[in-house]
Amino acid sequence: xxxxDFIKRVxxxxxxxxxxxxxxxxxxxxxxxxxACWSTQNAIPRADIVEQIANYFNVSTxxxxxxxxxxxxxxxxxxxxxxxxxx
Length: 87
Description:
Blueprint: H1 3-17, H2 21-28, H3 32-40, H4 47-57, H5 61-66, H6 76-86
Helix pairs in contact: 1-3
């Protein structure tokens, strides 16, 4: 995974919530310079930080890291409800 892909996914989540990187770093206690490093130096955060961010946005770490959701065998009706919930 490239750090730029990770930060793009984080930015897309921030945009959906109409939040800023500053708010995210403040809420999670991450230095804003660390987040800037992920963006400018193509760096990837430590696993514990990825998990914090995933929990913050209620997404999977797989999605943040790989851009893919863990494939759960759900009935179609549950997938539709989950999709609506995530929006």
